[in-house]
Amino acid sequence: MGTFQIEGGHQLKGEITPQGAKNEALQILCAVLLTPDKVTISNIPDIRDVNKLIEILRNLGVKIQKLDKGTYTFKSDDLNLDYLESERFKKEGSGLRGSIMIVGPLLARFGKGYIPRPGGDKIGRRRLDTHFEGFINLGAKFRYNKEERFYGVEAPEGLTGTYMLLDEASVTGTANIVMAAVLAKGTTTIYNAACEPYLQQLCKMLNRMGAKISGIGSNLLSIEGVDALGGCEHRVLPDMIEIGSWIGLAAMTKSEITIKNVSWENLGIIPNTFRKLGITVEKSGDDIYIPAHKDGYQIESYIDGSFMTIADAPWPGFTPDLLSIVLVVATQARGEVMVHQKMFESRLFFVDKLIDMGAKIILCDPHRATIIGHDFKSTLKATTMVSPDIRAGISLLIAALSAKGTSTIHNIEQIDRGYENIDERLRAIGAKIIRVQA
Ligand SMILES: CC(=O)N[C@H]1[C@@H](OP(=O)(O)OP(=O)(O)OC[C@H]2O[C@@H](n3ccc(=O)[nH]c3=O)[C@H](O)[C@@H]2O)O[C@H](CO)[C@@H](O)[C@@H]1O
Ligand SMILES: C=C(OP(=O)(O)O)C(=O)O
């Protein structure tokens, strides 16, 4: 278990460039399985989850070449499908959430797809029904081995397009079904589709490969099946969750930070949500400029004067992956806010650690926390903590950077899952953080 030691209380200053988006990269990497031709992808983040998925692709027989930092070519012309039934795959496939998205492309191209129960954050129930109901709708046969927690779908005769109304707008579920439908016979219509920029990027990439997808960016996708897909080039967008994390970090440490090349048009409601906390988020070309909040930041209230709530929702709503950051930033705001995490039932428990550090938070129930900000009149106290999941981890790190004294965060592998080289990048803007090897 790796550890960070963080000396808090220092203002940071400078520029930070976001990495490529983790959740987009996981989808895009799975899409390389849909064609025997070469696919070139750039801006792939060098993070644990992505590297694990690249390893799975390699073990599946995908020929992978690294051209440059973040740029790889993939060629899936001679796959080793036996790997899917190996003990090794059972271990490697369950190491991350994103591995679930190899099933759709494999089913579409080879008539079968298998996956052990995927990993990812332990933040509540993470069911896969939407994925498999989608495949079944397309004509696949489904089986599940309860003992081994191993899922399988098969369609030796191929898939057939149909209309489907998803039971929820699942992000990875929509990506999986889209990747299966692009090679199905006939037209598939997916209503209540997720439409995060991750998915928009995936659909645009698939169209460049020869797919016929319309409705991109909406919750109604239409996919006219084609016989085969070819190669393409694709660049992963900057990671909007990292961008939100840096906005929170700047405000909470009263630092002046420029976040470079953020792709503003793909940030949706994120900048405005931080503005509701009173944070100045300035657009400067394609950068975000956050001035030092010397006088703190004041949480807005609603027009009628009632209490602000920040809640998650499928895109274009506010992503659940930034609620933990909103929560930690609110601990030093002027005013009160309720954070309502609707999607996941175990994602707010980390507030205990913030309370230990001196934050004023009431956990109303597993989904809702009320935060009363200190307005910097009292700083958080340094402590020792364990990172329970990726976003709680970064939130605790932000808390530690703002706290008085030296904090220790264990289990930083959770943070490394999604943040590239975070200690070095934070040191470059003045943070006092060191990585202590396990
Ligand atoms: C690898 C990857 O891309 N992971 C992301 C993906 O996970 P993932 O695709 O696993 O998450 P899903 O979109 O399937 O669902 C997330 C949770 O929200 C619930 N739910 C979902 C849709 C809805 O309309 N109502 C609802 O309550 C689901 O029951 C589930 O508990 O999307 C999540 C939701 O944005 C993000 O937190 C994860 O970072
Ligand atoms: C929940 C997350 O990731 P995963 O779905 O990979 O667990 C996240 O990125 O916040």
From TrEMBL:
Residues 7-426 form the Enolpyruvate transferase domain. It is found in: Cytoplasm. Its main location: cytoplasm. CDD domains: UdpNAET. Its EC number is 2.5.1.7. GO terms for molecular function: UDP-N-acetylglucosamine 1-carboxyvinyltransferase activity. InterPro entries: Enolpyruvate_Tfrase_dom, Enolpyruvate_Tfrase_sf, MurA_subfamily, RNA3'P_cycl/enolpyr_Trfase_a/b, UDP_GlcNAc_COvinyl_MurA. Keywords: Cell cycle, Cell division, Cell shape, Cell wall biogenesis/degradation, Cytoplasm, Peptidoglycan synthesis, Transferase. It is an enzyme of class 2 (transferase). It catalyses: phosphoenolpyruvate + UDP-N-acetyl-alpha-D-glucosamine = UDP-N-acetyl-3-O-(1-carboxyvinyl)-alpha-D-glucosamine + phosphate. Pathway: Cell wall biogenesis; peptidoglycan biosynthesis. UDP-N-acetyl-alpha-D-glucosamine binds at residues 97, 321, 343. The keyword Cell membrane does not apply. Pfam families: EPSP_synthase. The active site is at residue 121. Phosphoenolpyruvate binds at residues 22-23. Belongs to the EPSP synthase family. MurA subfamily. Cell wall formation. Adds enolpyruvyl to UDP-N-acetylglucosamine. This is UDP-N-acetylglucosamine 1-carboxyvinyltransferase. The lineage of its organism: Bacteria, Pseudomonadati, Bacteroidota, Flavobacteriia, Flavobacteriales.
